[in-house]
Amino acid sequence: MVLENCMQKSYANFSRVAEIVEIILLSLGVFLTPLVIPQILSFVFGEDSFLATNSQFVVGAIVNTSLILGGINLKGWKKVLAIVFLPSISALFSGFVLKISAIYTVYMIPAIWIGNFALVYLFKLLFVSKKVNYIFTSIAAIIVKCAFIFAGYQILLQTNIIPQGSKVAQAMFASMGLNQVITASIGAVIAFAFIKLLYPHLNSKKD
């Protein structure tokens, strides 16, 4: 019951048209970002540039921003699950996360989905429903999200689905560990800026 109630709440009240526009934009954003951004960074800065070789930080920040904004604004299971599922599917297609081991991201998708949903749900439950401070909500949501994703990586590692001690394991350790914390944190900061900019009349008591 609590879960269902949370899924029907949003931070700001939108018209039907505005809500449809937002879900379209967020869905396109989280799907296209992993496909397009790495290519743009490589083209503009060069394939060997810092931004191009570390595109996960840029992509992850954009995706997490979209997840948080979608989490606090979108109502209903279908809309929320759309933005939860799309980023990892797109990332798999693009192979940007782990270019040397893109095949292993298939096994990580369930953990990534659970982690993304946890992030969205906790923002709905704490920030939207219970009016909890944004900073506390962000810390709690980021910890839970990253814990689920890193736990998924550890399960794959301990069951030898990911070869222990390999370059694949080393690359995924960073991508599914600290990098997740960094990109989720950046996303929370950017989302907060959007909230302050878009809803100044609503957030005076929520930050």
Low-confidence stretches: none
**Structural class, from secondary structure content?**
mainly alpha
Tell the overall outline: globular
Number of domains: 1
- One letter per element, helices H and strands E, the order comes to HHHHHHHHH
Helicity range of the residues? Answer: over 70%
Number of strands: 0
Instruction: Report the portion of residues in β strands.
Output: under 5%
Distance between the termini: 27 Å
Summarize the structure.
The chain is an all-alpha fold and 207 residues long. The protein has one domain (2-198).
Characterize the structure shown.
- By secondary structure, the protein is mainly alpha-helical.
- It has one domain.
- 76% of the residues lie in helices and 0% in strands.
- It contains 9 helices and no strands.
- The longest helix has 30 residues.
- The model has no long low-confidence stretch (mean pLDDT 83).
For the structure shown, list the relevant keywords.
mainly alpha; 207 residues
